[in-house]
Amino acid sequence: MTAAIDAGSLETRLGHRFARRDLLEAALTHKSVPASPRRGAERLWAGSYERLEFLGDRVLGLVVAEMLLDQFPRDTEGALARRHAELVRKETLAGVAAELGLAPHIRLPPIEQKQARANPALLADVCEALIGALHLDAGIGAARGFVERHWRPRMEAAAAPPKDPKTSLQEWAQARALKLPAYRLVQSAGPPHEPVFTVTVEVEGLDRTTATGGSKRLAETAAAAALLDRIAASGEP
Predict the structure, then answer these.
(1) Of the residues 22, 25, 53, 57, which is catalytic?
(2) Is 112 part of the annotated catalytic residue set?
(3) What confidence tens digit (pLDDT) does each residue in 91-135 have?
(4) Which domains does the chain carry?
(5) pTM of the prediction?
């Protein structure tokens, strides 16, 4: 049996009392948990967070974009895009989830609970699902209020826009008189509305790194970021 959700304490931290508690429950439920027998909700979110996550991702992206336009009126489109990517990345979402203490509230099969609750990707997905649930329960205003509270401090903390990982990797290579990073598209798959691109990046003297993304550019960026992470982990200056 999965643990019951302590909705009251979580709603206090979210700053919102749900009119539709089934939305909150779905946002906190992993797809491997058997669906609730209640009727009416299953067609929309299928008893788990995945479909609400899809919505929450779009709502978060829109609200953060509006916040950035207001906060940084002199930034170029490229600078805004880099700020946006940093604010909506999985690591940022997982950080917000940790602040809210979401992990104990996530409904998981008992066999998966110990390891899954510490998984940043799961925390990020559930956080996005909660944004989607807020939007469906009370409209864009409720979702915007939540995002404003938890993302504005992060946005204001970064005086300068972060560098694009591709730019950082190129500068790293140039500083060592190495050839520029070489990117190669390995595969494109998935339906037209949700494509997945797989890209590799190579830098002289380093192992090839592979990553995926919803566009070729995003996949290249992810590959560059992954290679930079490897370089940092190795202690390479």
Answers:
(1) 57
(2) no
(3) 899 999 999 999 889 988 776 556 666 788 889 999 999 999 999
(4) 7-157 (1.10.1520.10), 165-234 (3.30.160.20)
(5) 0.69
Q: Which one is catalytic: 22, 53, 128, 164?
A: 128
* Helix spans in the chain (H): 7-14, 21-27, 42-45, 50-71, 77-88, 90-100, 113-116, 120-138, 140-157, 165-175, 216-234
Q: Is residue 125 flagged as an active site residue?
A: no
Specify whether the CB–CB gap between 25 and 5 falls below 8 A: yes
- Sole residue written with tokens 């206090």: 12
Q: Measuring CA to CA, how many Å separate 200 from each of 91, 106, 183?
A: 22, 35, 6
